[in-house]
């Protein structure tokens, strides 16, 4: 709570000392990012939108996702199958033990 009071005090002091500054975004970057300018109670807000993949890019992304998943399944499946086989051979699954 004390930190908040200190911060707010510093902000009030800066309002008195510092002249107001305005930030003007680079128009070409604004267009390249496909951003949009919104107004929230008089405060300009730049919203950046994720551009969904379309066309060949979406097909390529899907193919890469499937290839990586298949590689991971094969890569992890072999050691897990070996572990399962060893457990079965050593008898942990068969339950060799004294029965009551």
Explain what this protein looks like in three dimensions.
This protein is 57% helix and 10% strand. It has 100 residues and is mostly helical. It has 2 domains: 22-51, no CATH class; 53-100. The protein has a two-stranded antiparallel ribbon with strand order 1-2. The model has no long low-confidence stretch (mean pLDDT 76).
Question: What is the strand and helix layout of this fold?
Answer:
Blueprint: H1 2-17, H2 27-32, E1 36-40, E2 43-47, H3 56-90
Antiparallel strand pairs: 1-2
Question: In brief, what are we looking at here?
Answer:
Helices cover 57% and strands 10% of the residues. With 100 residues, the chain is mainly α.
Nearest-integer average pLDDT: 76
Structural Rg = 31 Å
Instruction: Give the class from helix and strand content and strand pairing.
Output: mainly alpha
Q: Strand order, biggest sheet?
A: 1-2
Task: Quickly count the domains.
Answer: 2
Number of alpha- plus pi-helical segments = 3
What percentage of amino acids are in beta strands? 5-15%
Termini separation comes to 65 Å
Number of strands: 2
Biggest pleated-sheet summary: 2 strands, antiparallel
């Amino acid at each position: 709570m004390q930190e908040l009071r200190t911060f707010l005090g510093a902000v009030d002091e800066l309002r008195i000392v510092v002249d107001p500054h305005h930030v003007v975004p680079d128009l070409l970057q604004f267009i390249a990012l496909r951003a949009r300018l919104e107004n929230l109670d008089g405060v300009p807000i730049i919203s950046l939108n994720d551009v969904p993949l379309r066309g060949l890019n979406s097909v390529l992304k899907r193919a890469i996702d499937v290839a990586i998943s298949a590689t991971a399944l094969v890569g992890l499946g072999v050691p897990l199958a070996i572990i399962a086989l060893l457990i079965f051979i050593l008898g942990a699954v068969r339950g060799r033990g004294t029965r009551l």
